[in-house]
Amino acid sequence: MGVYTNVSLTATNSLPTRLKDWLNPPPGSLPQTNMIQGFLDVSRYPYYADKTGVTNARPAIQNAIDDAYDANLVVFLPSGTYLCEGGLSLIQTNPPLFASGRKFVNKLVGSTLGARPVLKLKDGAVVTNNLITGSAAADYPIFLYFAWQGVVTSLTEDPSRHYCGTLRGINIDMGNNPNVSAVRNHGAQLCAIEDVDIYGTAFAYGLDGIPGGGGSCSNVKITGGKVGVKLQYRPIPLLTGLQLYGQSQYGIWAKGAPQLAVVGFNIVGPTNPTPGYIAVYGFAALALVDGTIQVTNQASGQGIVCPSGSDVYLQNVYVKADTCISGGGATTIFGSETNWTQLSEYAVRAGSNNGQMVVRGTDYGASTNATVATVITNGITPPTNLVSQHLWTTSFPSWQDVGIINITNYGAVADNPTTNNAPYIQAALNAAGGTNTVFIPRGHFFVGGQINVPAGSKLIGASEAISVLQAMTNWIPTTNTSILSTADNPTNGVTLAHFAVVGNEPGVAGNTYLGSYPNMTSQSNVTFVTVQTGNTIWRDLQMDEKPASGSGVCYSSQSRTAFKGNAGGKVYNLAMDGGSAAGAYAAGQPPNTYHLINVQNITNTLCFYQPDPEHLDESAKVAIYNAGAVSLFGFKYEAAGSDFRQQLLSASNVMDLRVMGGYGNYNQATNALIALSQCTHVRIAVVSRNGGTNDTAGLLWFTGQGNTLTDQRDIALYSYDLLPTDLVLGTPTIIGGVLRLNFSGPAAQSFKVVGTNQLTAPVSNWPVLKTGIFGVGGPLNTNFTDPSLIVTNQQRFFRIVSP
Which of 7, 586, 646, 665 is the most buried (most CB within 10 A)? Predict the structure, then answer.
C-alpha cells in the first residue's frame, strides 16, 4: 500500500458534504459514534437506512458507500433487514493520490451482535448497475457490484487494479428476482467475500466473478439460484469453506479463469429432477481438495464434467452421483446415487495442454491424455469436518466483542510520526491476557520497537486499509527483530486480522507520505510479522514497503514474514510485493536471507490460503525448510520482470508439502522456479504460468527429488513419496480376526506406527498408534496389531515412520 495518511475526520473540509457536520450533528439526530474507530453506520445520521425491512434502504446505503470510500471508512450494517429496490455499486475509481489504490477502497461489513444483517432485494426489483461490457460482461445485472473502473463513466473494469474490496458478515436475500445475480467482486489482492450466506426464491447466480490474485472467498454458503459460482478471468481464484445447495444448472461454472482451487466444500444438487444439472462444470483447470458432491434424484446425475480437456486434480473428494467425473481428457469414473465413491487421489493430464505429470518417478510424457487414480467405492461416509477444517473454528473476533480493549485507551496515539506506540500496544495486549480482543482503530500508529503478542491473543483492526502499524523512521535496530512477534506456544493460537503492517517508503515528489526514509538498510534487520504460535488464524493483513529504485542497497536482509518455532494454523490472503530492485543488495548481504514467506523449523501443520508473493529479485519468494506439513492452496505469484534470478519456491526437508493450484505472470529463472530437496511427501498439482516474451528456452520449471520439469508446460501433477530404504515391510496377516503389520529395521533405530481413516490428512496429524526401537529388548523384526479393524469393518491407512 502507499503509506498515505487517512483522510482527516476532524478537518471536516476534506470530508464528503454529507459528513462535514458529523462532529456537530443537528439536535435530535442519531449521531455517528464509531467513525473515529473506522466505521460508518448506515442506520445513523445522515443516512438513516431502515433496518426493519419495510421501506427502501438502498438510497441511504448507497450514499454511505460513496461517502465511506472518499473518507477512508468501513461501511457498517447493524443487525436488521435492509430492503433494497435496486442494486448497490461499490466502485473503485482512479485514486486521488498516486498508488493509493489500497487506501481508497470499498468495505461492506455486518454487525457481529445479534443476527447477521440481511440485504434483501425487493421482489421484481429493477437492477441496472451491470456496467461492464465485452467478454467479461455479466450475464445478468448484479445486486452488489464491486469493481475497479478507473473513471465513473467507464463501461469496463480492471480486476487487476481492484484491491481490498470486501463483503463480510452480511447475508443476501435475493427474493424473487430470477434475472439478477447476487454479488460480483472481481478483484485482486485482499479482495474478499467472507462469512456470507446467499439465498432467495429465485435468482440467477450467487457469485458472478470472484477474487483471485491475492484475494479469495471463505465461508460462503449459497442456497438456490441457477448457478452457485460462475468464474470470470482471474489468476487462480480460491474458494475455501464453500457450501452450495439446490442450484438448477451448475453448482460451480468454472468458465473464464485459467485455474480454480476449491478447498473444503459441500455441493448438493437440486432435490427435484433437473435435466442437465452438473455440480462442477470445469472449463478451467481444477484442483479440488477435501469435499463432497451429491447429485441425486436425477436421470443421469453428473458430478464433475470437464468439457475442454483441462488438467484436473482431486484429493479426498467424495461423490454420490451416477457419474463422478467425465469429459475431455478425464477417464470416466462411474458411481452411484446411493453410495459414496471416494476419490482419494485422482489426476488428469490433458494431452491438449501438453502438460507434465510425474507420479512417484514415472513421467507420463506429453501430447496424450493421462489419468492416475486411487478410487475407493466401498460406501464410506465422508468425515464431517471436510469444510470446517479449513475455516476458523470459533466465531471470529470483532471490534464489538464484550470487553474489547482499544489500544488508544492504553496511550496509543494515531498519526503522530514521533510517538512510539509499541509500549502502549504492548500494554493493551498484556492487559487482555490472551482472552479479550485487542482493537487497532482507524489511524497510522507508529512503532519503534518489537511488539510481543502473547499466546491466545486476538489482535484485530477496522480494515487493512486504514488500521496501520508503521515502523518509525528513527528505529534502527542492530539485531534481528520484528514489528510483531507472537509467543512461541504449541497450541494456544493467536488471531491477527484486518490491519496493515508497513515499513517506510522513500518520498516521491508530489505525493503525501507520512515519512520519507531513503536509506532502507537502516531497517534491514526487521521482519514485519513473526509467527511462532500453533493454531494461529491470520486473515487479511496488508504489508508493503518499497525501496528507492536504483538506490544500491537492500532494504532488508530479514524476511518479510517468518513462521518458526511452534508456528501453525491458517493464513488467508497473504499478499505482498517484494519491491526490491534487481541488484540492489548491499555488499556482504547474501540474497538468500530474504524471503517474502519464510517457514523454518516447524512441526505444526501450516496452511496458506491464497498466498500471493510478488516482485522480489535475487532470492526465493517462498522458503520452506525443516517443516512438518505445509500447504499452499491457490498459489498466486508474479515475477519482477526480465531479471532471470528470481526463484518462486525453495523447500527442503519437508514431511508433507502441497501446492494445490497455482498461476501467475512469471519468467523462467536461472535456477529452477521450484527447487525441492529431501522432502518426504510432495503433491504439486494444477500449476502453470504466463511466461511472456522474456523466457529463455531450456530453463527449468522444477528440479529436485530426482526429477526436472522444463519449459513452459503446465504441471498437471508432480507426486513424490519417499520410501525408506532401511525398512523392510512384511506381508500383513490376519490371525484370529486381528490385522497384523510385520516390519523390521536397523538395530537401535526408533520407529512409530501412525494410522488414520483419512489418507490425505497430513502425516504429522496422523495419530501415533505404537512407538519402539528396533533390536532393543527384542528382535529387529516387530509387528503391530489392530483388532478393532476387522471387528468394525473400518478402513484405515497405516505408515511406519523411522527414524
Answer: 646
